[in-house]
Amino acid sequence: MTETVGIDRMGFYTPDMYLEMTDLALARGEDPAKYHVGIGQDKQAVIPPTQDVVTMAANAAAQILTPADKAAVKMVLFGTESGIDNSKATAVYLAHLLDLPADTRAVEIKQACYGATAGLQLAADYVRARPTAKVLVIGADIARYGLHTAGEVTQGGGAVAMLVTAQPRMLALEPVSAYHTADVMDFWRPLGRTEALVDGRYSTNVYLDFFKTVWTAYQAQTQRTIADFAALTFHIPFTKMGLKALRQVLPEATPDQQVRLQAAFEASQLDNRNVGNLYTGSLYLSILSLLRHGHLQAGDRIGCYSYGSGAEGEFYSAIVQPTFRQGFDDERLTALLANRHAVSVAEYEALFTQRLDLSGRDVQLPIGEVSAQYYLAGRHQQQRLYRQRAVD
């Protein structure tokens, strides 16, 4: 008998500061409706210098890993395009911070926003072959385009952690998926740059074209139609982008099915609207938001569209499990987002420039008011100094 494999638990972390999009719009001389409606964003996570992708991943993973889980984890796959070293993997730093066993394989995966999906599929195949093993998959990023740029409104950051196991509590991954790759220059970040370069309109068009390509290929492989799905979820660097993709296929559904799919999309984008762009984690925050705010039932099938500029796209599906609400701490996640505090545009701009630069110089970061369990204390002799705060 083939084991059911999928996402057993999910954790999410973003720092405790955000910027109101109305404030940013007014500061940039824009109509707030352009940001709230035209882009589909309300708040944007602001990342302090004491957080990077490693610490955010550790703070997310700590929410879901028990001592027994740590003993069973055999692999850490860390999807990110905000890596901190051109050689050493973020996954190695993370495994150390989480005190995982020494016989854990730890690897970083990079392909723009697609990296976490590659990790998830590799993890699923690994567990299908080794049903007693568990794999920790991370999608963590800090989206940076620069101050006063066209992409500034689509910044943000955070981390999603997923524990992939046999007999999962949340989502069973179906084995068939469709993927597509092409060498496209819609978004890239050359070596030596901390901000990305993007052709926004072109990138949106490529994203939409790739979705139709993999959706059609998935249907051809499975003979399924849109009627087989309770929800479609999307990589959403900004929420309007996912809505555009959904609207491409809604005509394939009946009027009643369209209403259900639109309602599910609204639930899936609620948390993303208030965090912003997570790059590799965006699809997975969308899935988590759907499970938290939607009206799903056991046995429902959800479709998942992953996209990474440059470019790679994939469409796969998952089945909601009867115990899916046991896989995340809804109260904790609600409090995480609700208890953040707003910063002014001036404070946001100052924090944006305070991150560790590329000079390699020694830095001691201000850690007096750090509230996160895992944080970055600074840099010494070109080595990052990670610390863990005592937890009651």
UniProtKB/TrEMBL annotation:
Q: Can you supply a Gene Ontology BP term from the record?
A: acetyl-CoA metabolic process
The cross-references to InterPro entries, in alphabetical order and at most eight, read:
HMG_CoA_synt_C_dom, HMG_CoA_synth_N, HMG_CoA_synthase_prok, Thiolase-like
**Active site residues according to the UniProt entry:** 81, 113, 235
| The organism's place on the tree of life at top rank | Bacteria
Q: Which Pfam families match?
A: HMG_CoA_synt_C, HMG_CoA_synt_N
Q: Where is the Hydroxymethylglutaryl-coenzyme A synthase N-terminal domain?
A: 3-165
Residues covered by the Hydroxymethylglutaryl-coenzyme A synthase C-terminal domain:
175-249, 266-356
Residue sites binding (3S)-3-hydroxy-3-methylglutaryl-CoA per the record: 31, 145, 244, 277
Q: Which UniProt keywords apply?
A: Transferase
Q: Name one GO molecular function term.
A: hydroxymethylglutaryl-CoA synthase activity
Protein name, per record: 3-hydroxy-3-methylglutaryl-CoA synthase
* Source species: Levilactobacillus namurensis DSM 19117
